[in-house]
TrEMBL record:
Keyword Oxidoreductase: yes
Protein name per the record: NAD-dependent succinate-semialdehyde dehydrogenase
Organism for this UniProt entry: Kroppenstedtia guangzhouensis
Keyword Amino-acid biosynthesis annotated: no
Keywords carried by this UniProt record: Oxidoreductase
Length: 482
């Protein structure tokens, strides 16, 4: 990686008046210095996008597809380099970072193909002398605000469909993990993306930078992944110019295990659903509802898995659990566990900071005897903590699982096919993992219900988020024929 990065605005690399340092959460080491963009540079990025908007919209779909495919190829070729940068700034183990780079590239592959299939319709008219034709156009300039926990994949999941549809994009990545975003800009520049179609604005004044775009009527869409609180604020701001809004917000995923489940498989998938990215994902399992008949066995098996996981710097060999992203996240995890223990929870394994100097490490933790009085039953922990709640009936667990304003992901394990359908229909979540702890994939529609957001990313539905529908009512068809 570079030690001195620049902003990417309108196809050019530029500096800013101020800079800030990006640090490795595993040891506090300074990784690089990046520009701290000001509001004038966000305005410049918007102006560049507006200037190229019509040109990019008119490019043939095959041309846009080729650029996306070339960018995907470059990401795959540079997987090791990009993964090391990702791990260094975010913390996740290198094996997971490699997986994220491939996951990120898969969105470019998918939408490179979907962009060639933006079809219209003909609709029977209400009069014999008319014809009704429907076609789709890009929505226009887009702002994409992405989080730190998937600093590559959350960009391409927005950038892929936007570029495929013909929209210029301004990306505002998290100031905690800006290096992956700037490396993606290098890749698209090399892939031949025209100047102005993409800008990467890095800055610590997230509210000020975003406000510039939200107040500009020429920015027609915002796509945001992050906290529910910020998402609600952005919805309010978007109302002033009636922007299109896509929001992927917080989750509080239940993970339900019935007594007829394959117990070993359920435990294995529970570890995946909980510990991917140290539990710092919006779809991470947060509340484990285990039937009372199998609670003891499940807890023992899960604790055994957790004890075997190596904690450390994600760049080190065999590490499976990296550091949390910052001090605030670590302290939140500590508060949740402390509150649970003070209210009667029992620590089966973990329950404390890992004794590794210099970083924000927390031991993989399993808690039993948890109940609804505890903070972690109501709030997303965003860390490597698995609280196990006992239940005795299907009706009871569905009710408990739905007792949250969040509705992003839910998981359940059973061999009863009828139960699979009942839970799929009755759980108020947009993503359901039935005997599957890792359901995310580029071709599936990712998104939530209730306060977990609006819209879908990935799949054929993800492209629709960046398209406007028009229709033409063409009259005068029944003229005199020769």
């Amino acid at each position: 990686m570079d030690s001195q990065y620049q902003l990417y605005i309108g196809g050019k690399w530029v500096d800013s008046k101020n800079r800030f340092e990006v640090r490795n959460p595993a040891n506090g080491q300074v990784l690089a210095s990046v520009p701290d963009a000001d509001v004038s540079q966000m305005a410049q990025a918007i102006e560049s996008a507006v200037q190229v908007e019509r040109y990019w919209a008119q490019r043939p779909a095959q041309e846009r597809s080729r650029i996306l495919m070339d960018a995907s190829r470059l990401m795959r070729e540079r997987k090791e380099e990009l993964a090391k940068i990702l791990t260094s700034e975010e913390g996740k183990p290198l094996t997971e970072a490699r997986g994220e780079i491939l996951y990120a590239a898969s969105f470019l592959d998918w939408f490179a193909e979907e962009g060639k299939r933006i079809y219209g319709d003909t609709i029977p008219a209400n009069s014999p002398d008319k014809r009704i034709l429907v076609f789709k156009q890009p929505v226009g300039v887009c702002l994409a605000i992405t989080p730190w926990n998937f600093p590559s994949a959350m960009i391409t999941r927005k950038l892929g469909p936007a570029l495929a549809a013909g929209c210029p994009v301004i990306v505002k990545p998290s100031e905690l993990t800006p290096l992956s975003a700037l490396e993606i800009a290098k890749i698209f520049e090399e892939a031949g993306l025209p100047q102005g179609v993409l800008s990467i604005i890095v800055g610590r004044d997230a509210a000020g930078l975003t406000e510039v775009a939200m107040e500009d009527p020429r920015v027609r869409k915002i796509s945001f992944t992050g906290s529910t609180e910020v998402g609600k604020h952005l919805m309010q701001q978007a109302a002033s110019t009636v922007k299109r809004v896509s929001l992927e917000l917080g989750g509080h995923a239940p993970f339900i295990v019935f007594p007829d489940a394959d117990l070993d498989q359920a435990v294995k998938q529970a570890v995946v659903a909980k510990m991917r990215g140290m539990g710092e994902t919006c779809v991470a399992a947060n509340r484990f509802y285990v039937h009372e008949k199998i609670m003891e066995s499940f807890a023992e098996k899960m604790a055994s898995h957790f004890r075997s996981m190596k904690v450390g710097n994600g760049l080190e060999a065999e590490v499976q659990v990296g550091p949390l992203v910052n001090k605030e996240t670590l302290e939140k995890v500590e508060r949740h566990v402390e509150d649970a223990v003070n209210n009667g929870a029992i620590v089966v394994t973990g329950g404390r900071r890992a004794e590794i100097p210099g970083g924000y490490f927390y031991e993989p933790t399993v808690l039993t005897h948890t109940d609804d009085s505890m903070i972690l039953s109501r709030e997303e922990t965003f860390g490597p903590v698995a609280p196990l709640f006992s239940f005795c009936s299907e009706r009871e667990v569905i009710e408990k699982a739905n007792q949250t304003p969040s509705g992003l992901a839910a998981y359940f394990f059973t061999r009863d096919v009828g139960r699979v359908f009942r839970l799929s229909e009755q759980l108020d979540y947009g993503i359901l993992g039935a005997n599957d702890g890792l359901p995310s994939t580029a071709q599936a529609p990712f998104g939530g219900m209730k306060e977990s957001g609006l819209g879908r990313e990935g799949s054929k539905y993800g492209l629709e988020e960046y398209l406007e529908i028009k229709y033409i009512s063409l009259g005068g068809i029944q003229g005199k024929s020769d």
